[in-house]
Design goal:
Blueprint: E1 4-7, E2 12-15, E3 18-19, H1 24-35, E4 41-42, H2 43-51, H3 59-74, E5 85-87, E6 91-93
Antiparallel strand pairs: 1-2, 2-3, 4-6, 5-6
Helix pairs in contact: 1-2, 1-3
C-alpha cells in the first residue's frame, strides 16, 4: 500500500512518512496480517501464533484491544484507509 511502509527486518512502520510506535504484540499482529494478505486469521490462530497460548474466553478481548490500539495508531489522518479489516465473528485480515 502506498500509504504504509512496513519493514519486518527493522520492525518499523510508517504511515505517510510518519513513524508509528508499536508495542511488540501490535507489531507482531500487523506482521502476521500483512505478510499473508487476504488470509483471514481467526482469534484462535492469532492467539496461537502471537501469544503461543491456547485460546480462552478472555483471549478475544485481548486481541480486540490490541487490534483497536493498532488501528488507532495507524489512522494518522481521516483519509488514511483502514489497513486491518474485521471479518464478522471470525477474526481479521489485511486487504490486498
Amino acid at each position: 500500500m502506498k500509504d504504509l511502509c512496513f519493514c519486518l527486518e527493522y520492525r518499523t512502520v510508517e504511515v505517510r512518512g510518519q513513524s508509528i510506535g508499536l508495542t511488540a504484540k501490535e507489531f507482531d499482529i500487523l506482521a502476521l496480517l500483512i505478510t499473508r494478505r487476504q488470509r483471514v486469521f481467526t482469534y484462535e490462530m492469532i492467539m496461537n501464533l502471537i501469544w503461543h497460548e491456547d485460546y480462552t474466553y478472555y483471549s478475544r478481548k485481548a486481541i480486540n484491544n490490541h487490534v483497536s490500539n493498532l488501528r488507532g495508531k495507524l489512522k494518522v489522518a481521516t483519509d488514511v484507509p483502514d489497513f486491518i479489516k474485521s471479518v464478522h465473528s471470525m477474526g481479521y485480515k489485511f486487504p490486498p
